[in-house]
Q: What sequence folds into this?
């Protein structure tokens, strides 16, 4: 339960920080608009206008580079921390786990004479809804992706502390991160 409490607190703090950053961004935008109006409409000083254009271009380029680096770091931080997948029962208790260490690809499905998936869900409560080849997990550059392999009942993903589950399009890889819950039909697997 401590892990869920820590994740909840971290998520709430991030939301508060995101709101504060958005408010600061709006205030900076308003100040910038008034400053630009003064420089280009009221002052009419050519040197000041040229200097402003140079600063705007340099600042915009630096902002784009910073945004790109930050977005990549966030994506990697969310996805590379996954060490295992854990099967959850209806009460949310951990039932079974699969290590992702030293793995690059895992098939999720049901064991049959012809198919031996690495993650066998033939013993789960909703096994009747799961295809023999239901989903595929692939690790590319340290990032795990889940893909619906033409299943009948689909694959869904829910990000931590979100109420909506996103249904994946077939044969379209989707990155997964720590705390994401995968829905293989109605069977829940959490990434840890």
A:
């Amino acid at each position: 339960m401590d892990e869920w409490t820590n994740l909840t607190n971290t998520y709430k703090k991030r939301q508060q920080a995101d709101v504060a950053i958005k408010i600061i961004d709006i205030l900076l935008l308003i100040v910038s608009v008034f400053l630009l109006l003064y420089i280009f409409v009221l002052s009419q000083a050519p040197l000041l206008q040229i200097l402003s254009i140079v600063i705007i271009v340099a600042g915009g380029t630096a902002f784009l580079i910073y945004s790109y680096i930050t977005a990549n770091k966030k994506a990697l931080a969310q996805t590379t921390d996954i060490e295992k997948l854990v099967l959850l029962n209806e009460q949310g208790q951990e039932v079974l786990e699969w290590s992702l260490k030293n793995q690059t690809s895992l098939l999720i499905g049901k064991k049959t004479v012809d198919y031996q998936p690495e993650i066998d869900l033939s013993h789960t409560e909703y096994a009747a809804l799961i295809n023999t080849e239901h989903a595929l997990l692939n690790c590319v550059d340290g990032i795990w992706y889940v893909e619906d392999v033409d299943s009948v009942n689909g694959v869904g993903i829910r990000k931590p502390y979100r109420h909506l589950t996103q249904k994946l399009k077939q044969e379209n890889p989707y990155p997964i991160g720590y705390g994401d819950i995968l829905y293989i039909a109605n069977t829940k697997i959490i990434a840890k």
In short: Residues 132 and 152 are 11 Å apart (CA to CA). Residues 2-79 form one domain.
